[in-house]
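Order emerges. As here.
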Amino acid sequence: MPEGHSVHRIARQFERNIVGRTVAASSPQGRFVEGAEVIDGREALEVRAVAKQMFLRFDGDVWLRVHLGMYGAWDFSGDVSVDATIASSNGRMGQTNQRGTVIDDAIMDAAGENSLSSIGAPRRARVRMSEQTTGLDEQTEWPPPVVGQVRLRLLTEATCADLRGPTACVLQTPDEVQATIAKLGPDPLVDDLTEGEERFTSTVRKKPTPIGLLLMDQAVVSGIGNVYRAELLFRARQNPHTPGRDVPEEVVRGIWRDWATLLPIGVETGQMMTMDGLDPAAYRRAMARRADRHWVYHREGLPCRVCGTAIVMEEAAGRKLYWCPSCQA
């Protein structure tokens, strides 16, 4: 499932390529025909990312709400302004050829995650935006042919955005948008950090639910998924099974502040980088390989990087939970 950083990055692509332009909307799959007819011919005016949901406003105060869920993704094609530079750990700036090689220290990793952070030159390309951003395929036909089950296609004169497999793709009124957002927990990139910390801390400290489940509850805090949950708890040295109300207040506040630190890093790099203090060589390895950028996630059976105890993986509310039973005792 896309975590918060991915949705914020997708919103950036809409800001660069769709907002301010009139769109032709269609539903090739046929499951959003009426909604597409409403927004067809309207100008996209604003995009917001909150938690794991994106809201796109069109003229006439028509809002499109998209929640990608487990399998949803946006494909961009055409003249797409994509992230094309990154400041590496040694401060240099570089560019990547999008094929997984390294040019002047910017890296797209072996899994296809995009490590780029700032706007690059428009190019004729296809870019898949979900939990990971895959490589770019050559695109010559315009408009591009529909591939697979496309719920919604938004087409400008130069750019095409295809939505596939979302959990939610609905039109909302301004009041409905506000009601949806009001149900979500604080997002460090949207809400005031101090107010968000107080709200998060107050909510967690009242709950008998294990902290490992609370961090995945989007009504408690926005944007955290399986990877960030495991890594935040390890960084806090917090047992995931401790009821929220029993977690020391300073630890809860520390988790919020750490989330407010890690989320912008994920947005800027395109990768869920959760290890810090790395030397330049280790940083380059971590940016290139997921196995080198996390403390506990996906490392079941491997020795803890701190104490050497085997990392445990267990099921928690249907999701995989990774933690160190020694460091997080």
In short: The two ends are 28 Å apart (CA to CA). The helical segments are 4-17, 33-39, 174-182, 193-204, 211-214, 226-235, 249-269, 280-288.
